[in-house]
């Protein structure tokens, strides 16, 4: 099973996991790394190392979902791409996490990362535009 790490600024990661568990139930193989304002880079790196070691026991790899590209969670996640089976995908949202959890047993790590990215792009909708396209009136 592909492991999933959600790494974000503040408590967003834990909130996403809690919301996903409300919908899907318990999520084995999923870890939240919530980075606080006073967390140093080495502390954060240790959280990543522990999570990756724990989640990649079967060797299927780990998908790291981060809140924004270029932020600390993403930058530290990227540093693990050279020495482990890791993919990093930024812009994490609840639909992305749900898709990743539901598809991770059916795809390779690389295919899962692509699938979740494409799903995320499709999950962004402007309600008024969608309703207009469907011919509905508000």
TrEMBL record:
Where is the protein found, in the record's own terms?
Cytoplasm
Keywords for this entry? Cytoplasm, Kinase, Phosphotransferase system, Sugar transport, Transferase, Transport
Top-level taxon in the UniProt lineage: Bacteria
**Residue span, PTS EIIA type-4 domain:** 1-124
GO cellular component terms, alphabetically, are: cytoplasm; membrane
User: Per the record's keyword annotation, is GTP-binding included, yes or no?
Assistant: no
Q: Which GO terms describe its molecular function?
A: kinase activity
Q: Name one GO biological process term.
A: phosphoenolpyruvate-dependent sugar phosphotransferase system
Q: Which Gene3D superfamilies match?
A: Phosphotransferase system, mannose-type IIA component (3.40.50.510)
Q: Any keyword Magnesium?
A: no
Q: Which PANTHER family match?
A: PTS PERMEASE-RELATED-RELATED, PTS SYSTEM MANNOSE-SPECIFIC EIIAB COMPONENT-RELATED
Q: What is this protein called?
A: PTS EIIA type-4 domain-containing protein
The species this protein belongs to is Syntrophotalea acetylenivorans
């Amino acid at each position: 099973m592909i492991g999933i790490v959600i790494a974000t600024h503040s408590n967003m990661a834990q909130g996403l996991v809690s919301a996903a568990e409300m919908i899907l139930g318990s999520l084995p193989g999923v870890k939240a790394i919530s980075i606080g304002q006073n967390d140093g880079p080495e502390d954060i790196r240790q959280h990543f190392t522990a999570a990756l070691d724990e989640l990649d026991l079967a060797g299927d790899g780990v998908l790291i979902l981060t809140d924004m590209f270029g932020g600390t969670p993403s930058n530290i996640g990227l540093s693990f791409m050279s020495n482990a089976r890791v993919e990093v995908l930024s812009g994490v949202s609840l639909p992305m996490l749900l898709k990743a959890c539901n598809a991770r047993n059916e795809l390779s790590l690389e295919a899962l990362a692509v699938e979740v990215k494409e799903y995320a792009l499709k999950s962004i909708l402007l309600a008024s535009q969608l309703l207009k396209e469907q011919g509905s009136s508000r």
